[in-house]
Every structure is written in structure tokens, then in C-alpha cells.
């Protein structure tokens, strides 16, 4: 007999969504509907073969949400600023004089607003889980106002709170920590081997400032499931380890046997050339984390040890 509980997961073929699908497919008490723009793609077909219902929806077309959300008990909503920013098809979208990352942030917020509006109309919905991030502009009191990939999500969260109080009453927020996969796939943060053989984690982060580190493809599902077992209204920062860059480098040395170190570059410097708008955003990003922490000291944030 089919379970009566249905979790609808956006970004089902991505890191966060894929991890959630993995966890809930193992729970016979849940049916899983994975949402993707391309149900015929290889990853989507693999999900279907494992028992997930795979359905098309597109964040750029809010009309696709109603059938995708039909009958949902829980909706997990996630967006992708960096996918928007890096898509070559979007390079000419900004208005004259508008930086691409600012356009991408506005677009992401618009996508999430459409999603929130659609979720508010689902009569069966018991919990809405929004993947969001705290606002550096807000928590730094305007000092760091260019961390668009954080602020864009926070603005959509504010919209949900202010415009849909009934939906907000059954909303939980999941804040993903800093993806460990950045050290594998992102050339800006990928470790470098120095001429003396030492592996260097080079960046603008204070080596002694602790941050939340997340393996999104493994950790998101268990954390979101634990969040779902809590009452609505929780704002969870998701991570597997709370470490400084120096401690992370030490852990890397212990795991691999290769000597490593965390190197902090002066503010405004990068070991790679960056587009001006991205350099400005990342400079504010690292500076905000160094001064105010990853989530800016938001007092509503809870940590994984606070959930079951």
C-alpha cells in the first residue's frame, strides 16, 4: 500500500536535493517526488529506477509548480545562484551597467518568490522547508552588501514570512554550510601544491575562524529529515564539522599523510584573476565571514546538535 506522506524535492538531481531523495527513498513511510527540469536526463532516469516519481518543473516557469506540488505533504525548495551566474545564456541578460551577479541575485529571488507563491496554494502541505542563507547586508548593518548569493535567498525568505503568514507558520529553514566539494571542483578554492610539496589551502579566510563545513551530497538528507521531525519554525545551519581553515588543513594532513597549511591572502587579493563583480562579491563574502561569522550571528540559527 502506498504511503500517504509525499515529499516533493526540488533540485532532485543536485547536491542538496539528491541527498534528500536518497534518505527518504530508504524510508517506507514516505513517497518521493523528485522535481527536475529534465526528467529524461540520465540522473533523473536513475532516480526513477530507484523508485522516485520524477516530475518536470522549471523555476523560470511558475505555472509548472501546481501539478508538481499536487498532494505534497512536504516541499523542499532549493535554488541555484551560481548556476544562474555561470550560465552563458545569461551573460547578456543584465541591464546596461548592471553587474551580472546582481542580475543573477534578482533572478534567483524572483524564482523563489514564484515557488513560495505556489507552495502557499497547496492544501495538503504540512511543512515547507526552504534552503536559504542569512543576509550579510542585514547582519553586518550594511557593511558587507555585495554578498548577493546569500542576500538573494534571504530576501525570498523575508517575502515568505511577510506575504504568506499561513505558509510561514509551517516553514522550516535549512542553511547549507560551506560545501566541501568546493575544494574539489572550484578553481578559486581548490588546494594548490607549493614548490616545496606542501598542499596549500589559499584564500582570504582567517585561518583561525571557525566555519560550518558540509558534504551536501551526503549530509543534507539526514539533516533535513531531522529538521522535519522538529516543530516548524526552526532555522538550522547544516554542517558535519565546525572547524577553522587551519583545523581543516590539519584534518587533511591526518587523512592523507600530505603536509598542508591554510594561507590567508591580504584583503582584495586572489590567486586567480576574477571578473570585477565576482571579486567584489567574494571580497565581501570572506570579510563578512571573518568579522561576523558564516551566518552573521543570526540569533534564530540552531545547530545540528539541537535536532534529533
Automatic annotation (TrEMBL):
Pfam families: NmrA. Keywords: NADP, Oxidoreductase. Residues 4-296 form the NmrA-like domain. GO terms for molecular function: oxidoreductase activity. The keyword NADP applies. The keyword Oxidoreductase applies. Belongs to the NmrA-type oxidoreductase family. This is NmrA-like domain-containing protein. It comes from Stachybotrys chartarum (strain CBS 109288 / IBT 7711).
Amino acid at each position: 500500500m502506498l504511503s500517504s506522506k509525499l515529499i516533493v524535492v526540488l533540485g532532485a538531481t543536485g547536491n542538496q536535493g539528491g541527498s534528500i531523495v536518497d534518505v527518504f527513498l530508504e524510508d517506507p513511510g514516505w513517497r518521493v517526488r523528485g522535481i527536475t527540469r529534465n526528467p529524461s536526463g540520465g540522473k533523473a532516469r536513475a532516480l526513477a529506477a530507484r523508485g522516485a516519481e520524477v516530475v518536470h518543473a522549471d523555476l523560470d516557469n511558475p505555472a509548472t509548480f501546481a501539478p508538481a506540488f499536487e498532494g505534497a505533504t512536504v516541499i523542499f525548495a532549493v535554488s541555484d545562484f551560481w548556476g544562474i551566474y555561470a550560465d552563458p545564456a545569461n551573460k547578456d541578460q543584465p541591464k546596461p551597467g548592471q553587474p551580472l551577479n546582481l542580475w543573477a541575485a534578482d533572478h534567483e529571488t524572483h524564482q523563489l518568490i514564484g515557488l513560495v507563491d505556489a507552495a502557499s496554494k497547496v492544501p495538503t502541505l504540512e511543512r515547507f522547508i526552504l534552503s536559504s542563507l542569512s543576509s550579510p547586508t542585514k547582519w553586518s548593518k550594511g557593511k558587507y552588501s555585495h554578498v548577493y548569493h546569500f542576500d538573494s535567498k534571504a530576501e525570498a525568505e523575508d517575502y515568505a514570512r511577510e506575504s504568506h503568514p499561513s505558509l510561514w507558520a509551517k516553514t522550516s529553514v535549512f542553511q547549507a554550510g560551506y560545501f566541501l566539494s568546493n575544494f574539489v571542483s572550484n578553481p578559486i578554492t581548490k588546494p594548490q601544491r607549493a614548490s616545496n610539496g606542501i598542499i596549500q589551502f589559499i584564500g582570504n579566510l582567517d585561518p583561525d575562524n571557525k566555519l560550518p563545513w558540509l558534504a551536501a551530497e551526503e549530509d543534507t538528507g539526514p539533516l533535513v529529515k531531522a529538521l522535519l521531525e522538529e516543530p516548524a519554525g526552526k532555522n538550522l545551519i547544516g554542517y558535519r564539522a565546525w572547524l577553522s581553515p587551519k583545523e581543516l588543513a590539519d584534518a587533511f594532513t591526518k587523512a592523507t599523510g600530505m603536509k598542508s597549511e591554510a594561507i590567508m591572502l591580504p584583503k582584495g587579493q586572489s590567486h586567480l584573476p576574477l571578473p570585477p563583480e565576482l571579486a567584489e562579491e567574494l571580497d565581501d563574502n570572506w570579510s563578512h565571514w571573518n568579522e561576523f561569522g558564516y551566518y552573521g550571528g543570526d540569533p534564530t540559527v540552531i545547530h545540528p546538535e539541537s535536532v534529533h
